[in-house]
Amino acid sequence: MNKEEILKANAILDAREERVNLIEALIENYKNTIVVARVNYPGNNKENYISDYIIEKGREELIKVFNDRIEHIIEKSSAEGPYIVLILKLDGNTAKRRTIEIENTHLLGRFLDLDVYEGSISSISRQSLGFDKRTCYLCGNYAHECIRSKNHTVEEVEEFIIKAVKRYMEK
């Protein structure tokens, strides 16, 4: 890694810490379910027009799905990319099931990371509700395994996401 990449990686880590602190404060202040939507975009350049487009479409879908349950929406952008926080008047397990449906059925849903928190900074997992772990865009293995073992280059994953977004825009 060169100096610029190290600085960008550190900025992403700092942004992640800020996001976690925000979530902790919201859990404490609102005592309601929190949904955080981020873009699953590889590498250190997470602030880009593709991420912006995906999060905007994700925002539209989240508002449609949770419309009358939304107490508050916060929209932010940081070194880890754009993200949205919804504070909901809805139990966490129901919210998680609905976010999994978005991730599994919306054409851009697989590029969203939709975490649900209820009373704790630990998010509700897919597995705790009987769903499988998320799979890799490119090969179908579990995504975390591909990320850890670096089975694919950042460029391969970026290219896949960009092509999928372009196909979505053409519909």
Automatic annotation (TrEMBL):
EC number(s) per entry: 2.7.7.61
Key words, A-Z: Lyase, Nucleotidyltransferase, Transferase
Any one GO molecular-function label of the UniProt entry: lyase activity
Top-level taxon in the UniProt lineage: Bacteria
InterPro entries in UniProt: CitX
BP GO annotations: prosthetic group biosynthetic process
Recorded catalytic activity of this chain's protein: apo-[citrate lyase ACP] + 2'-(5''-triphospho-alpha-D-ribosyl)-3'-dephospho-CoA = holo-[citrate lyase ACP] + diphosphate
NCBIfam families: citrate_citX
Protein name stated in the entry: citrate lyase holo-[acyl-carrier protein] synthase
Gene coding for it: citX
